Amino acid sequence: VQLVESGGGSAQAGGSLRLSCARSGYASSSNCMGWFRQAPGKEREGVAAILLRGDDTAYADAVKGRFTISKDNAKNTLYLQMNSLKAEDTAMYYCATRRYCTTFSPAAFGNWGQGTQVTVS
């Protein structure tokens, strides 16, 4: 499984951006897909996760009510709709996979994409 993120850019506080993560291939070991972010000088943190075969989603407290994770299995694409952006959302955003969505720990995920930068001012 290979992942390629896109859709990052600059936005003003209160604005919106939609990130995409294009996935090549599927494996049961990659049924959970997650979005993560890493700001300069900070550790990578989980943002949201979703099951590709299923409806379960999970969000970090910092983004609940503002971000929405979704998928289009026909297009092999994962999305992250980010609304009401804040300066603290500024980070490099990555997508990654694992078998189950039972943890947000980045160390438990693999197949990392190259990331897409989001800057909120």
User: What share of residues is helical?
Assistant: under 10%
Number of helices: 0
Instruction: Give the biggest beta sheet.
Output: 6 strands, mixed
Low-confidence stretches: none
Q: Give the CA-CA distance, first to last residue.
A: 34 Å
Kindly state the mean pLDDT as a whole number?
94
| SSE-based structural type | mainly beta
Radius of gyration over all CA atoms, rounded = 13 Å
Number of β-strand runs: 10
N-to-C order of helices and strands: EEEEEEEEEE
| Strands side by side in the biggest sheet | 2-10-9-4-5-6
Shape: globular
**Amount of beta strand:** over 45%
How would you describe this structure to a colleague?
Strands 2-10-9-4-5-6 form a six-stranded mixed beta sheet, with no helix packed on it. A four-stranded antiparallel beta sheet has the order 1-3-8-7, with no helix packed on it. Helices cover 0% and strands 48% of the residues. The protein starts with a strand and ends with a strand. It is mainly beta and 121 residues long. It has no helices and ten strands. Strand 4 (32-38) and strand 5 form a beta hairpin.
